[in-house]
Design goal:
The complex is a heterodimer.
Chain A: H1 3-14, H2 18-30, H3 36-48, H4 61-72, H5 89-109, H6 115-122, H7 124-127, H8 148-159, E1 176-183, E2 189-197, E3 200-208, E4 216-218, E5 225-229, E6 232-239, E7 242-249, E8 252-258, H9 262-270
Antiparallel strand pairs in A: 1-2, 2-3, 3-8, 5-6, 6-7, 7-8
Helix pairs in contact in A: 1-3, 2-3
Chain B: H1 2-18, E1 28-29, E2 35-46, E3 49-75, E4 82-87, E5 96-110, E6 115-127, E7 130-137, E8 141-143
Antiparallel strand pairs in B: 2-3, 3-4, 3-5, 3-6, 6-7, 6-8
Chain lengths: ~280, ~160
């Protein structure tokens, strides 16, 4: 197409609406022999036109825009984003979690099973009042008790050849020896003694080994309170509704179980060396 | 910056948890309101005779206390075990005691030499409140052949 013809053609096309130009453009593109110059002319004209001019908008655009505005209320004032305030307990909970993890980790480094064991060691005067009196390690041990049942237990232990200070010298008033058994006198000897006071009991067991052994003791799943006195290592644990103490002395493995209070258990242990607390 | 600090704290906490050392306490188990302690072991008084001991102490006097069963197992390599005999209270009344807080006795069995033996024992104690049960394996005992010049119970595999 000559340049003059292009100018004339452009002038004619510019008179048409955007919608008409769009239709002509579609027809050219869908045709078998599209006129390239015509297409370029139309695209040039459309590019020069203002898209915001309502006359240049496609058919139905105005109606669609009005429907959008009515539905959304556009334009809305810009709202400030809501700033979520942190609840006060979030950092407190995070700090508590960190402290708890530290409490779980630290005892391992100091050789304790858990924090309760550390507390038990540090606060033994609260958990278990130990007041060592009487004989020192260099003095000859003399068993003395006012309780007939404890004397019988001591005599049975001595008869097995054990004279070490392992038998308590005191138990609370009201307890009487209900059962004492000496099992397997020729092998792995065991002395079992049970004291009762109505619904309460104190169970004392001494096992004398010919070879190194140890019983398996049931206990609650918390740490043991441990006490070391004159080289004897006492372990005090709860087991359901009972308190249990275990320790070794020479060839003897000893245990003391009661459904009385922990205080009573500790008082009994306290009486093993020296005088009773009462 | 805050996010970086928070992430760092979380990583530190996870590291502490996963690197926390643990220890197995072999001499204590979990709460049992009926059983205070228990143990089983094997002795060899002579030749090919085994004494399988059981020892259970209750929490106070029990209506019944003892073992429900003893499984004697045998192995040639300490890896694969075969049950060679089962002891039940019906056949061995010493396995159960009544109205006491302790059951401590044994059962005997003649065995074939040249093998390892161990016992699997089910302990129990019951009263009006119910019953408590514990399980235990005895240590392994080796019965040497007459031709083997070693002490009874010694381990020819030398692994303890």
């Amino acid at each position: 197409m000559k340049e003059k013809d292009i100018a004339v053609r452009r002038e004619e096309l510019e008179k048409l609406s955007t919608l008409d130009l769009d239709r002509i453009l579609r027809a050219e593109l869908d045709g078998d022999t599209p006129n390239r110059e015509n297409i370029l002319l139309i695209l040039s004209i459309l590019e020069d036109r203002d898209p915001t001019d309502p006359q240049n908008r496609p058919e139905g655009a105005a109606e669609a825009w009005n429907a959008f505005v009515n539905r959304t209320g556009y334009p809305r004032p810009i709202e400030k984003p809501i700033r979520k305030t942190r609840k006060w307990y979030v950092p407190v909970a995070a700090a508590a979690a960190v402290v708890l993890i530290l409490l779980m980790a630290v005892p391992q480094t100091v050789g304790a099973e858990n924090i309760f064991e550390i507390l038990g060691r540090w606060t033994r005067d609260i958990f278990c009042l130990f007041d060592i009196e009487g004989t020192s390690s260099n003095d000859e041990y003399i068993f003395e008790t006012d309780h007939e049942g404890l004397q019988q237990v001591y005599d049975a232990v001595v008869a097995l050849g054990v004279t070490d200070p392992i038998v308590p010298t005191w138990i609370p008033n009201g307890y009487i020896l209900k059962e004492m058994r000496l099992v397997s006198p020729n092998e792995h000897t065991k002395v079992y003694a049970k004291f009762e006071n109505q619904d309460y009991y104190i169970q004392f067991v001494v096992e004398i080994y010919s070879v190194e052994r140890s019983n398996k003791y049931t206990k609650d799943d918390i740490g043991a309170l441990t006490f070391d006195f004159s080289g004897v290592y006492y372990s005090v644990v709860p087991n359901g509704d009972t308190w249990k103490a275990t320790w070794n002395y020479g060839v003897a493995e000893c245990s003391l179980v009661t459904n009385d209070t922990q205080q009573v258990l500790c008082q009994i242990l306290n009486s093993i060396k020296g005088r009773a607390t009462e | 910056m805050k996010k970086a600090i928070r992430n760092l704290c979380l990583i530190c906490a996870m590291l502490m948890v996963f690197t926390m050392p643990t220890s197995a306490e072999e001499s204590c188990t979990y709460t049992n309101r009926f059983i205070s302690s228990y143990d089983s072991f094997i002795t060899v008084p002579s030749g090919n005779t085994l004494k399988i001991w059981f020892d259970v102490v209750g929490n106070g006097t029990m209506d019944e206390i003892g073992v429900q069963g003893i499984w004697l197992e045998r192995s040639s390599n300490r890896t694969e075990w075969t049950t060679v005999k089962i002891f039940y209270p019906e056949d061995y009344p010493q396995m159960v005691c009544r109205n006491t807080g302790i059951a401590y006795d044994y059962v005997t069995c003649n065995v074939i030499s040249g093998y390892y033996y161990r016992a699997y024992v089910t302990f129990y104690a019951q009263d009006s409140r119910g019953m408590g049960i514990e399980y235990d394996y005895s240590e392994t005992m080796y019965i040497p052949r007459p031709s083997e010049p070693m002490c009874l119970g010694a381990d020819p595999l030398g692994v303890g």
